[in-house]
Amino acid sequence: MTSHQPIAGLLLFPAMTQLDLTGPFEVLARLPGWRTEIVAKTLEPVRTDKGLVIAPATDFASAPQYDLIAVPGGPGTDEAILDPETVEFVRRQAMGARHVFGICTGSLLLGAAGLLRGRRAGGHWQARDLLAQFGAEVRDERMTQDGNIYTAGGVTSGIDMALRVVGDLAGEEVAQQIQLQIEYDPEPPFRAGTPKVAPRHIVERALAVTAERRRIRETAVAQAAANLLTTG
């Protein structure tokens, strides 16, 4: 009898933020004994929000049951949470997975799939408040864990949380070795990585630039939350 090789699946969808996926992928792909693959609705290459094109390894129809399912975010989340096939795939995979990992606004997709009711969850600072519409207990931390559900803040925090996931799956020493291998020891040149520490005028500028995206996202989340109520 052959032993089961655990598999981590990372979701790919149009207009997602590539580092939400590629950051955690770089960490998870180094997990000893695990296989890591990228899954999308079809096998067609997918264009991310800034133009990087990524080819999935498998599609929804052929995907195995993953032991870990990771869901990134980005502008494309607003369409993904309203796509029945994507929402159902995330729901089905998460129900069978041992661990569920949402990065950035990927937590909204977890919410749309009905996975965050009564659970602590976070996400990107410009969107995490919307998680309440899916019944989540919204948290502001860079990394939030509630049982087997891990949610990370914006973009780069996916690397941090991926290392925590590895620590839980394979032990802290394995996680530390991976951290060393990728030389993950960030020293940002500016103290502006969260709205709590960034200069106020920089925060206001960021909010102004993304105001239209926020309006689109609010509408999408309201519809996704209504869809969830009708589907149960």
Characterise this structure.
- This protein has 232 residues and is of the alpha/beta class.
- It has one domain: Rossmann fold (3-Layer(aba) Sandwich).
- Helices cover 39% and strands 16% of the residues.
- It is built from 8 helices and 11 strands.
- The strands form 3 sheets. The chain has a 7-stranded mixed β-sheet, with helices on both faces. A two-stranded antiparallel sheet has the order 3-4. Strands 8-9 form a two-stranded parallel ribbon.
- Strand 10 and strand 11 (149-152) form a beta hairpin.
- Helix 1 (18-28) runs parallel beside helix 5 (157-170).
- The mean pLDDT is 97.
Number of strands: 11
Assign an overall shape: globular
Average pLDDT score? 97
Top CATH class: Alpha Beta
What is the tally of helical segments? 8
Distance separating the two termini: 39 Å
CATH topology: Rossmann fold
Please name the fourth-level CATH homologous superfamily.
Class I glutamine amidotransferase (GATase) domain
Structural class: alpha/beta
Proportion in helices: 25-40%
Query: Secondary-structure element sequence?
Result: EHEEEEEHHEHEEEEHHHH
Percent in strands: 15-25%
What does the main sheet amount to? 7 strands, mixed
The radius of gyration computed from the alpha-carbon positions, rounded to a whole number of angstroms, is: 17 Å
Counted up, domains total 1
What is the CATH architecture annotation? 3-Layer(aba) Sandwich
